[in-house]
Amino acid sequence: MTGSGVSLGIGDDCALLRPRRGEEFAVTTDLCIAGRHFRLDWHTPESVGHRALARGLSDLAAMGAKPVAAFLSLGLPRELANPAGGWASAWQESWTARFLDGLLALAAAYKTPLAGGDLSETPIPLADIVLIGSVPAGKALLRSGARPGDLLYVTGSIGGGAAALPHLERLAVQQKARASGLNPARIPKGLRALLDRHLSPQPRVAQGLWLRRRALASAALDLSDGLSTDLTHLCEESRVAAEIDAALLPIHPGANLQYALHGGDDYELLFTAASATRIPKKIAGIPVTRIGRILSPRAGRPTITLLTAQGPQALEPQGWEHFRGAIS
Predict the structure, then answer these.
(1) Angle CA(158)–CA(163)–CA(169) in degrees, nearest 5?
(2) What are the b/e assignments for 177-202, b being 16+ CB within 10 Å?
(3) Phi, psi of 140 (to 5 degrees)
(4) Is the predicted pLDDT of residue 152 greater than 90, yes or no?
(5) What is the pTM for the complete model shown?
(6) Are 43 and 184 in contact (CB under 8 A)?
(7) Separation between Cα atoms, residue 242 and residue 312, nearest integer Å
(8) Cβ atoms of 286 and 237 closer than 8 Å
(9) Are 171 and 187 in contact, with CB atoms under 8 Å apart?
(10) Distance CA 268, CA 283 (A)
């Protein structure tokens, strides 16, 4: 499977990539491990494959990079990769194929060829994804470009990815009580819209490309670890402070303020733009909401201030951090 920028894909010892003149590669990697980033009793194989690729595509989107190629290293226990009795079932026998179905469907939607990878036996399922994107030299969106006076924006809605987790846990418990095996429970129709925010997130590649091509964003990153944590990263890299208005946050209908502030797995774009820049209400069909502004850092003032009906409050980063938390 080859595409623009890939001159040789799967079949040889290495893939060959060919950047266009004046472009540079953006490279990101994400490791997804069972029990940490997904659960076999929560996520279907298709969801695991989709999410594994979506994480890297979201990183490329945040830098305004066009996807070029993906590389997958997949580790599986023998009973999932090649079941031969025991606890194998019809669902488990097709786990690998269904994982690839989910990954390749998203890859096709974003024209991202799978150009290589590896398969190995491991004690627990894991997937390591490397994504490569192209961006005009010196034009990538960075976390370090925000300036005092810039306005702060977010795409889509936030909080839904994390708000899905309690429902997934409840459904898994109910499924375990009804039947043995690892097959995740069917999702009730009324929960589908919320749980899809976690199970099949859509990276904002088109929105990142739009912002980069028009040079409208001064800084950007993706919301994978939670607004409070990711905005702290942006402030640290730009050496600024920020103020967000709780009343302006586009909270997903199934979430609340705490999920919107600290929940991860939204994969929306958080970006800044000069106050004089006209940002449309939608970019490539996805709503864009102004949620705050960038401030100069000042002694005695928190890095992030949350404006609420009760007055301003310091907002500490409480989103996802490695070596703390459960599912991201």
Answers:
(1) 155
(2) eeeeebebbebeeeeeebbbbbbbbb
(3) -60, 145
(4) yes
(5) 0.88
(6) yes
(7) 12
(8) no
(9) yes
(10) 12
Handedness of CA 63, 67, 73, 76 (dihedral sign): positive
CA 14 to CA 116: how far, in whole Å? 7
pLDDT reading at 251 higher than 80? yes
Cβ(46)–Cβ(93) below 8 Å: no
Predicted local confidence at residue 39, as pLDDT: 87
Does 86 have pLDDT greater than 50?
Answer: no
CB atoms within 10 A of CB 52: 25
| Whole-number pLDDT of residue 323 | 41
Residue 233 pLDDT > 60: yes
Rounded Cα distance between 139 and 278, Å, is 20
Distance CA 309, CA 328 (A): 31
Q: Is the dihedral of CA 292, 293, 299, 304 positive or negative?
A: positive
Place of tokens 């409050």: 313
Given a cut of 60, is residue 76 above it in pLDDT?
yes
pLDDT over 60 (residue 88): no
Q: What is the DSSP string of 43-103?
A: S-HHHHHHHHHHHHHHHHHHTTPEEEEEEEEEEE-HHHHS--STT--HHHHTHHHHHHHHH
**Tokens representing residue 224 in the block:** 């994978």
Question: If DSSP states are collapsed to H, E and C, what string results for 256-303?
Answer: CHHHHHHCCCCCEEEEEECCCCCCCCEECCEEEEEEEEEECCCCCCCC
The residue-averaged pLDDT of 190-201 equals 90
11, amino acid identity: G
Distance of alpha carbon 80 from alpha carbon 215, whole angstroms? 46
Question: What pLDDT shows up at residue 149?
Answer: 97
DSSP code at position 191? G
Q: What one-letter code names the amino acid at 184?
A: P
Contact 301, 9 (CB under 8 A): no
Which of 65-79, 180-194, 284-298 is predicted least confidently? 180-194
